[in-house]
Structures are given as C-alpha cells and as structure tokens.
Design a protein that fits this description.
single chain, 381 residues, alpha/beta, Rossmann fold, 2 domains, nine-stranded mixed beta sheet, binds NADP nicotinamide-adenine-dinucleotide phosphate
C-alpha cells in the first residue's frame, strides 16, 4: 500500500533543496524504501522525532504508533493500525484501566501503559494518536510536544479555545507536526458534494444538520467535555465543515441552545453563521430524538446539492423538479484520517487538517456558547 508520493521534506517547508538528504516513500509491499530527497540543513533543524521517523522509515521499518485512549472510538483506530496500514505498527496502547488495557495489549502483542507519559517516553513510539475525552488533550498534547513526537488528536482539539491555542502554540514553537482529526472532512458524501458545488451556480446559503440519538452516558461524564454538551461533542463536526466547504473564516455567530436543566450540558443547538464574505449558514445539531440524520445542503441559484451521510447518498435538485441522485460508497473516515496523517508525516508536507483548523473549530464553539449565554450575535476577528 502506498501512503504518499515522494515529496521532499525540505520543499514542503519552503526550503530550497540544495544540499540533499534522502527521504523515504512507501513501496508497493507496504515496506519502505529510499526514494526522495530533502534539504540537509532543514533536516538538521527538524525536531528529533520527525527526524527519527525519517531515520526509521529510511531503513524500512514501519512507523511506531502509540495510541492513547481505547474506548469506543480508540478501538477503531487500533483496528485500522493493526489491519489496514502495513506501513505503520501499533507500538503501544494506553488507557487508565490496566484491568482492561493489559489483556487488550497482550492479545495483540503490543506494549501497554496505564500512564500516557510512559507511552510517550517509550522510544518505540514515534508518533502519538490521542483518542481520549477532550479534557485530556491539553496535558497529553503538551507532553507529546515536549517529547517532540508528531501527534494526531481526535476532535474536539480541546474543551475550549484557550486550551486549543496552548496546544497549537506549543506544537508550532517546537515545529512538531500536529493534526486534528476532524474526520467528517474525509466522509465520501462530503467529498462528493464538494466536487459538485461548482455546478450549483451563485451560492445562496449552506445548511448543515447533525442529529443523533441521546447519549446519557456522555452527559453523566460531562466533565470529560469541560461541562459542555452536544455542541462541542458533535456540533464541532459541522462547524468545521463550514470552514472546509466555504474556504472562509466565520465572521459572526448566533446560537440558541437547549439544556434539560440549568446546570446540564446542551442537547440541542441552532446556529446561524455568516462567513467573512457574507455567506449565510444554518446549523441544526441535536441529541434529542431516536435515529440519525446527517447532511449538508449547498443551496445555489441554479441547483441544490445535498450530501446525506446517513443514507450515503448525494443528489442534485435542478429546475423542472429534476433530481439526479447517486449512492456513494462508504469509506471509513478513521482510516482515511490515519492515512492522511501518516502520508503527510512521511512526505514532510503540512498536515492536511492542522492544529489551527482544530483550534478554529473550538473557537467557533466558544462563540456559540457566548452567543447563547448573552442572546446576542458574537463577532469573530
Ligand atoms: N471523529 C468522530 O467521528 C468521533 C467519534 C467518536 C468519538 N470521537 C472522539 O474520540 C474521543 C474518545 O471518544 P470515545 O467515544 O472513544 O470515548 P470513551 O469510550 O469514553 O473512551 C475514552 C478512552 O480514553 C481513555 N482515557 C481517559 N482518560 C485518560 C487518561 N488520562 N489517560 C489515558 N487514557 C485515558 C479511557 O480509558 P479508561 O476507560 O481506562 O479510563 C478510554 O479508553 C473523544 O474526543 C470523542 O469526541 C470522535
């Protein structure tokens, strides 16, 4: 399997490739071989662990992944690393419960650590994947940055903008690659819609819906999300899609929240956004009903493009009541996320979804909460 092309490390950082050093690339068999080149000065300037990744890959070894968090979602990551990524290796796993983590690790022949600091310090762990509740992301992220290990953090990057900015600033200051797993960007229906919006004519507005069933287990552990609810947990997906699909920053936010009680996390959010170019967006996010509905609707003057990821369909509605509909083949977004992360690491190219993207999404969540609290629109810089 091939994860990336032979783009030089140095070139992607804007450095001229004068003095050259070998880089590496996945070959057909999934092993690694030397093919590319990069600027020697840049390589010297790389943090030790990206350099370590390069050294390892140069001698044909798969990248060692340390996975922190082995809950519902973390186990999906573990499965993909073990079964679908021949160029990567699950080196170690971590969760707080040793009773559950030890047998999981033993069955798969990987190391287990109940303390994330020990996993990060393990020299066989070259890159860190964080799939814990977001309340842990700041401490784990800063520790990985201190150890100079590239990291992938599940959405939301943090529970609030301040924590997100701290992680992003630290990673930037240390030149440690950081990707936020805004996994919906890899959804096949979203990709299909993105390819079609050019045919919709003058854009009028964007509507995004994400309604899932109630999750009382999450709300019982509200501290995991900094006391925040559905807006941070799943609303962050559609808030990020606004930036991704429009290619614009958001200028203004208005939000209305529903909470079952005054001190309880939000279960429904209705949001109106306006991008810097004045494009209106309407978002409907909730966990109040059974069943699942997830869709993006791009409303243009000539056509409406709808991507529905609950039914894996995309359709285009045009004049005269005509509708062109097609089924889209599902693809696991976690696998695509891991491939994009490892591919960028291996090429030395910028992360496809940056720490700053994750930070912006969390800042939009902050603005929504502020708007709901004050019942006023919030302007963003
Ligand atoms: N992109 C998506 O579509 C998507 C979907 C689902 C979830 N997620 C995100 O993925 C993350 C995890 O969600 P989940 O549903 O898997 O949660 P979960 O089932 O509650 O699992 C959380 C895991 O993190 C571990 N953990 C908690 N604190 C830790 C610490 N201090 N050190 C090490 N491990 C720790 C837990 O271990 P113990 O149980 O042993 O304490 C558990 O294994 C969340 O950020 C969530 O938003 C994203």
């Amino acid at each position: 399997m091939r994860l990336g092309a032979s783009v030089p490390w140095g070139a992607s950082h804007g450095h001229p490739c004068r003095t050259i050093t070998m880089a590496s690339q996945y070959c057909q068999s999934g092993a690694l071989r030397l093919t590319g080149w990069c600027h020697r000065g840049r390589l010297r300037g790389l943090p030790s662990s990206p350099r370590e990744v390069l050294r390892r890959t140069a001698v044909g070894q798969p990248i060692g992944i340390g996975l922190i968090g082995l809950g519902r979602h973390g186990r999906r990551y573990a499965k993909h690393v073990l079964e679908d990524l021949p160029g990567a290796r699950l080196a170690a796993v971590c969760r707080r419960s040793a009773a559950e983590g030890t047998p999981f690790a033993a069955e798969r022949g990987v190391r287990f650590y109940p303390d994330y600091r020990d996993l990060i310090a393990d020299p066989t762990v070259q890159t860190v994947v964080v799939v814990t509740p977001p309340i842990c992301a700041r401490a784990i992220g800063l520790e990985a940055v201190r150890a100079r290990k590239p990291l992938l953090i599940e959405k939301p990057l943090a529970t609030n903008g301040e924590e997100a900015r701290e992680i992003v600033r630290a990673a930037e200051a240390a030149s440690v690659p950081l990707m936020t797993a805004q996994t919906m960007r890899f959804d096949a229906t979203v990709a299909a819609l993105r390819a079609l919006v050019g045919a919709a004519g003058l854009r009028r507005y964007l509507s995004l819906t994400m309604r899932l069933e109630p999750r009382p287990d999450i709300w019982r552990r509200a501290a995991d999300y900094g006391g925040r609810g559905v807006l941070l947990e799943i609303g962050i997906h559609v808030l990020d899609l606004v930036r991704y699909l429009t290619g614009e920053e958001v200028a203004e936010v208005r939000c209305d929240l529903e909470r079952p009680g005054p001190d309880q996390p939000d279960v429904r959010a209705w949001i109106h956004l306006r991008t810097r170019a004045g494009f209106p967006c309407v978002l409907d996010v909730s966990r109040v009903s059974s069943g699942r509905v997830g869709r993006v609707e791009w409303v243009g003057a000539d056509a409406q493009i709808v991507a529905d990821w609950s039914t894996h369909t995309v359709w285009k509605a045009i004049g005269g009541g005509q509708v062109e509909q097609r089924q889209v083949e599902e693809r696991p977004t976690v696998l695509a996320t891991l491939q994009a992360f490892l591919g960028a690491l291996e090429r030395g190219s910028p992360m496809p979804i940056t720490g700053l993207d994750g930070q912006r999404a969390v800042e939009l969540v902050d603005a929504c909460y502020e708007s709901a609290e004050t019942s006023k629109p919030v302007k963003l810089g």
